[in-house]
Design brief:
- The chain folds into two domains: 98 residues, RNA polymerase sigma factor, region 2, helix turn helix motif (Rna Polymerase Sigma Factor, Chain: A, Orthogonal Bundle); 53 residues, Winged helix-like DNA-binding domain superfamily/Winged helix DNA-binding domain (Arc Repressor Mutant, subunit A, Orthogonal Bundle).
- 70% of the residues lie in helices and 0% in strands.
- Helix 2 packs across helix 4 and helix 7 packs across helix 8.
- The protein is mainly α.
- The longest helix is centred in the first third of the chain and has 23 residues.
């Protein structure tokens, strides 16, 4: 797994290797971008947010005490940035102006099938995005980390600094809440 090289790359970067930092960014940029997109719902905003996260990593890597915990540290940092940006954008009314049917604001489900099937997929995507957006922040986080980022329970436990049992119960509650919100539509 490529993420296993992260501790070695962190050590190399701390010793001055710019290439090591570039490799860290390449390893994690897609996952961090997808996490950001899960919060801000717009590609340009998610790209900016991802870039800000990696700038902070560059500036604060010396605060990381254990190189083996880089992934968890990065996700904690990313979640904090995502929460802050989400709150800032929400106060400015950013989310009320997003077109929900625009595939650029969420999941890309166009398959090249019939227009009816594409419409159905886009509608389902919109419903799921709305349901996820309506979850409590803690529920939204575990859904994004487990189901969209495909992180293990152990990784989520470490990132959120919660016991694994708590992570599993939060995820279960979040999935039940999603199921409840979507039961009339799907």
């Amino acid at each position: 797994m490529p993420y296993q090289e992260a501790p070695e790359l962190v050590r190399a970067f701390r010793q001055g290797s710019q290439q090591a930092f570039n490799r860290l960014v390449m390893l994690y940029q897609r996952k961090i971008y997808n996490l950001a997109l899960g919060y801000v719902k717009q590609e340009d905003e998610a790209k900016d947010l991802s870039q800000d996260i990696f700038v902070t990593v560059f500036q604060q890597i010396d605060k990381l005490k254990d190189e083996d915990k880089f992934g968890a540290w990065l996700y904690q940092l990313a979640l904090n940035h995502c929460r802050n940006r989400y709150q800032k954008l929400r106060r400015r009314g950013f989310f009320s102006n997003l077109p929900l049917d625009d595939p650029e604001t969420g999941l890309h489900l166009s398959s090249g099938a019939t227009p009816e099937k594409d419409y159905e997929r886009q509608n389902t995507s919109r419903l799921v995005r709305e349901a996820i957006a309506s979850l409590a922040p803690a529920e939204k986080e575990v859904i994004l980390l487990r189901d969209l980022q495909e992180l293990s329970y152990e990784e989520i436990s470490e990132i959120l600094e919660l016991p694994m049992g708590t992570v599993k119960s939060k995820l279960n509650r979040a999935r039940l809440a999603l199921k409840n919100r979507l039961k009339h539509y799907l």
